[in-house]
Amino acid sequence: MNKKRILSVSELTNYIKGVFDDELILHSVVVVGEIEEFKQVGTNTFFTIKDEHSRLSCSLFSCYEDIPLGTKVEITGAVNFWAKNSKISFVAREIKKVGEGEEALALLKLKATLQLEGVFSNKKQLPKFINRVLLITSDAGAVRHDFTEILFNSKAKVDVKFYPVRVQGDEAVADIIKALDVVNNNDIADVVVVMRGGGSAGDLSVFNSEGIARAVSSCRVFTISAVGHETDTTLCDYASDLRMPTPSASASFVAEKLLSVYNKVVTLGLLLAENLDKLYNANYARAMLASFSVERFAGDRITLATANTKMLSARLNFAVDNLLQEKEMLLASLSVKLDSASPLKMLSKGYARIEKDKKAVVSAKYLKLGDNINIFYSDGKVGAKVMEKD
Questions:
Q1: Rounded distance, CA 12 to CA 121, Å?
Q2: Longest pairwise C-alpha distance within the chain
């Protein structure tokens, strides 16, 4: 009976490295693929090439000019096995550009087709009043929490809802299209934000889908695309009504618009009150001047002057009353809009504000079992203790 041979990790990895080192064909290989990732770290260049089935990590131990993603290249070099971390890498000696890759050409062709059809031209106007925002993104990422935290810190008041979707993989396209279809068939949002965090070109390829581009373009609600990093651009960005460089930037944009409308309403209310006061004083001064002039007339003209003064006073009072009614109606309309944005209004709809140690609690992660908290409703406050946390 043969005795089982037991190797340590180092023995096995060193053996594998020896196999690679002894295989002479691997010392000089030319491989063809499309650039998927490309970056420089210090004096070294790291990139990934791919075809329709596989990806290969490559390194060049020198600086090289930036190569656009999707470029087809021929790489001459050697296959290396790093025993320390059991990683296979292609160490390049020469990089040769041979044209656009098939995937990049297909994307450019699709982009041109959609642009010719007007898919990228169907832009809607941002609503004047934003009361409801719907986030279409992954439940696993942090971008959703970053978005709501930025809004909370800005003091902007808006109802934020969340529609969870997959943002990567074969089923992500169907998820996002379904979410946009729900928006089109239900009155649930004034603004929609389609977003995901950064990633490689492959990670973001979902948002270059023709289906998503058409669904975003045909969405009847104003749609913001916030996908990847600032330098990433997808068909979803072109099809949306507004492209933001990052999810956090989209949150800042919404907060800025909300606060701008709120400040305009407050300013208009103050200006209206000031103008009403000036108008009343001006008309009152004119009436007093007219009365004084009438008293200067003597004899038989006093009766006629008095009658004219009464008629003028009646017209003046009528005009002032009408003007005051118009301005009061405008002020009431603005007050209703201002009240709809009030925090107390939000509380009256059943929402509550939770505080711990006199500080607002914006996430369950800031609470632990046994914590004493205060819950503020529109009509009062109650104290509570955290008994369960899921």
A1: 59
A2: 145
**Do residues 376 and 353 make contact, with C-beta atoms less than 8 angstroms apart?**
yes
- Read off the tokens for 241: 């009504």
Nearest to 378 by CA among 352, 339, 340, 342: 352
Cβ 47 vs Cβ 37: under 8 Å = yes
Least confident among 60-74, 115-129, 281-295: 281-295
Strand order in the sheet with 242-243: 159-164, 132-137, 191-196, 222-227, 242-243
pLDDT one-digit tens code per residue, 314-372: 777 777 677 777 777 877 777 767 666 666 666 666 678 888 888 888 788 888 888 88
Q: How far apart are CA 362 and CA 350, in angstroms?
A: 17
Q: At 234, is the secondary structure helix, strand, or coil?
A: coil
Q: Single out the residue of 198, 283, 301 nearest to residue 245, CA to CA.
A: 198
Give the position of tokens 């609600």: 221
Rg (CA), the chain: 34
Structure tokens at 310: 């009464």
Q: Give the E-state strand segments of 228-345 in sequence order.
A: 242-243
Instruction: Please measure the distance between the N-terminal and C-terminal CA atoms of the chain and give it in whole angstroms.
Output: 56
Burial (Cβ within 10 Å: 0-12, 13-18, ≥19) of residue 133: buried
Q: What letter would DSSP give residue 303?
A: H
Three-state secondary-structure class, residue 148: helix
Distance CA 240, CA 219 (A): 9
